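Quick one, probably user error.
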């Protein structure tokens, strides 16, 4: 197999439809053997593939003079092939320290963001990297050791947005053999031998043991597992959409609610993937959930008291209600006291609650009293517009419907068994400085409708989303 990498490369690229006619392809070239072989193969087949090539290089500021030598080498290669050359200089160590990342993860994030930005600016439809089968096996083992979920175990994707990995079918030994037999020059990175780095430790210590002591085809078998799990991840995404369609998962702007009984019916990988997607939507960044964290969450879901919280990060928490668990960003948990002016007829977003509110005048014939708190009818004789809506504050008082005495809003919400985070997000509707209603909970007895000659307003609430 080592002597026909070139033919297998074109067969794989065509069968997997990695490129389209007239694609501009940006090749990520570090100067190492893998990326130089990728460049050699793409350049050899570019007329058959009908693609145009450009080269991009990241100067990572890690190895001093060696990094400068890599840059010069890649630039000279681009010049010799008369290909467009782009390079980005970023200090990976500084970025890693600032964001508390490993050097590998910091490099990954910078490459992803900077390369995609440049590709969009320069009109490149694809970004090709030299990840191969051994990289895949190392990645899967790293993620197994870290307790990754199914998405992580799917490993390095053959396609992901603009990114393609045309060498993912090939072993490292095949790539090195091709370089030696086709006079492909490359740079050697001494840090690849540093076994204090987990990937290198797996490459130089764990994988050789697996191949010689247990399974000579370990790399291939791990890569096959990755392909199967990538298909599973596609299925899981569809299952998550099904959860939302069934109403088990409900999403609004600042929070998400999950029905606990329905959630428990699914197996763990769907649960983990669902939580990862929810956390990602709330944070705006890709989120991964280690199995230990997931197990702690399940224990809390079973044993935690109503109103208790589970912390995912410094900015995202979950709160337990009777049959629901709420996921929310913690910055929305603190009231600012800001108020919104309310006029009849229009819809208004209430502060930090994920609720929209509308108030409009109605005739007596439209009045229908019921227990649904999303629709209330109030006596508007004394209303002076604009009304105001804001989050409740300590010291707020009102007279609940049917009561002769006023009560603290905080005590009333506690008696109604409204726990966090919902309690802190509750809003009140004000007529001047008097509470007309706790929005979605209860109206003030002073504003109840009693006679046909009252001026009547209907208050309607709708969940955002």
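Nope, works fine. Designed sequence:
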């Amino acid at each position: 197999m080592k002597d026909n990498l070139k033919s297998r490369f074109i067969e794989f690229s065509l069968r997997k439809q990695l490129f389209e006619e007239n694609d501009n392809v940006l090749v990520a070239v570090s100067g190492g053997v893998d990326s130089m072989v990728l460049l050699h193969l793409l350049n050899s087949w570019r007329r058959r593939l009908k693609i145009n090539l450009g080269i991009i290089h990241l100067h990572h500021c890690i190895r001093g003079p060696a990094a400068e030598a890599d840059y010069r080498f890649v630039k000279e290669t681009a010049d010799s092939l008369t290909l467009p050359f782009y390079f980005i200089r970023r200090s990976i160590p500084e970025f890693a320290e600032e964001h508390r990342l490993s050097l590998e993860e910091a490099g990954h994030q910078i490459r992803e963001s900077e390369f995609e930005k440049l590709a969009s600016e320069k009109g490149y439809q694809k970004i090709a990297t030299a990840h191969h089968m051994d990289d895949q096996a190392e990645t899967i083992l790293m993620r197994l050791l870290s307790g990754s979920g199914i998405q992580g175990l799917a490993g390095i994707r053959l396609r992901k947005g603009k990114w393609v990995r045309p060498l993912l079918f090939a072993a490292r030994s095949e790539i090195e053999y091709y370089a030696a037999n086709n006079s492909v020059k490359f740079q050697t990175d001494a840090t690849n031998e540093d076994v204090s780095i987990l990937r290198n430790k797996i490459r130089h210590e764990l994988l050789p043991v697996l191949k010689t002591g247990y399974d000579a085809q370990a790399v291939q078998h791990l890569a096959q597992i990755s392909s199967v799990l990538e298909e599973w991840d596609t299925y899981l995404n569809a299952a998550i959409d099904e959860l939302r369609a069934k109403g088990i998962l409900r999403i609004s702007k600042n929070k998400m609610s999950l029905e606990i009984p329905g959630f428990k019916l699914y197996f763990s990988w769907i649960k983990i993937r669902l939580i990862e997607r929810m956390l990602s939507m709330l944070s705006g960044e890709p989120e991964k959930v280690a199995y230990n964290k997931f197990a702690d969450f399940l224990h809390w879901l079973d044993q935690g008291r109503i109103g208790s919280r589970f912390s995912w990060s410094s900015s995202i928490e979950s709160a337990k209600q009777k049959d629901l668990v709420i996921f929310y960003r913690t910055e929305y948990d603190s009231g600012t006291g800001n108020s919104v002016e309310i006029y009849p007829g229009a819809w208004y977003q209430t502060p930090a609650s994920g609720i929209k509110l509308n108030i409009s005048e109605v005739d007596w014939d439209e009045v229908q009293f019921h227990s649904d708190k999303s629709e209330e009818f109030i006596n508007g004789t004394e209303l002076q517009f604009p009304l105001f809506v804001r989050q409740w504050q300590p010291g707020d008082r009102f007279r609940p419907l049917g009561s002769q005495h006023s009560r603290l809003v905080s005590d009333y919400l506690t008696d109604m068994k409204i726990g966090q985070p919902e309690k802190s997000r509750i809003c009140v509707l004000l007529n001047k400085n008097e509470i007309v209603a706790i929005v979605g909970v209860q109206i003030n007895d002073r504003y109840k409708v009693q006679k046909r000659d009252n001026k009547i307003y209907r208050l309607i609430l709708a969940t955002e989303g």
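The chain has a mean pLDDT of 84.
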